[in-house]
Amino acid sequence: MKRELIENLAENKSTKISGFIEKVRDTRYMVFVVLKDITGKIQVSIDKEKQAFLVEDALKLTQGSVASFYGFMQVNPAVKAGGKEFIPEKLEILSIADALPIDAEANIDSRLNYRWVDLRSERNQLIFAFSSFLVEKMREFLLKNRFIEIHTPKLIGTASESGSEVFEVKYFDTKAYLAQSPQFYKQMAMASGLERIFEIAPCFRAEKSHTKKHATEFTSFDVEMSYIDSFEDVMNLEAEMLAYGLKETKEKFGEKVKEVFNVDINVPKLPFPQMKLRDIYDELEARYGFTVPEEEKTDLTTEAERLCEKLAKDKFNHEFLFVTDYPPEKRAFYHMRENGVLKGYDLIWKGIEITSGAQREHRLIELKKNADEKGLTKDVEFYLQFFKYGIPPHGGFAIGVDRLTMLLLNLQSLKETQFLFRGPDRLTP
User: Would you say residue 268 lies in a domain?
Assistant: First the structure.
């Protein structure tokens, strides 16, 4: 008999259900078993007199065991959990679980040691169903707007994309590196005439950061597009994509997210507000008395970034804020500059940066000059080849999927939004 998901059970129809055992309760006349699958849970009710042949095996079941029950679902208003119960005619034990090593109250690092058990909870499974749907809708938006999905190498031959350190790996008789991002290959796609591309894939950063928003391996949602007139074209596309994704996700998951996480999914209005970096520091000082030394105003400090959440709400009644007009010193050499100002942006949401985007420098002479300034010319020789045979003006951005999910659900760390977290001190399971 084909297995049926709990959410699809029809009344009085002979069927089979399978899942994890959440609870077994032995009473004088009945054995009650709570069975859970990815769609929900149901009480299996075994009458000790009428179904005596099932009792012995049912009492072997432990929390975390896996079993199949054959029988039918019936409506029973007396059942507190959903008003439905499953009346079994046959029980098949698929595996018996030892006593579980963690419970829902364990700290996050203990839970990560047994992540496969931790992920069985309704809360954690909702995180991944939610994140998967949000990514699906952002991807859908891009496909509707003539973007092509590509898959770029994660093993690369040079380690020079940015100031972040990279992981070195042995590659036969030479060295290779794990890609920090698909940036160079996204631009190669622009030189290939693909015009509009995106990729959803892992990236690797050898940074010993122990913050809630950093990981050594994470999932990046990268977008690049040709024939732009300005980096504002890139900003507008990202805002439209996020608004679309959040609208669709709110319609499907809004009530459940409110119930489980006590979070309201807000669909942002278009366009997103934007401010120059210098103006932000002026506003933060004028409104909140926040100041930093002049030499720190070349970027957003962590505290300034955090205050941008309040600033966006107070000044624009908005959750998102584009920050523009960064100086080029701390930015990648391939970002276009104009009069000493970067033609790019960061997107701040809930006090944390979720995106860096820019118009790229597509003019070979300017690109070489920028690389020379950062001492990278030799390291990026292969990359510069992309620009020798014609390439249109282009730009793009990247969003960390794990960080986006963390912020949307108001979670404490990426450790909760990644299937298996990787950080400076964690390489298992």
Answer: yes
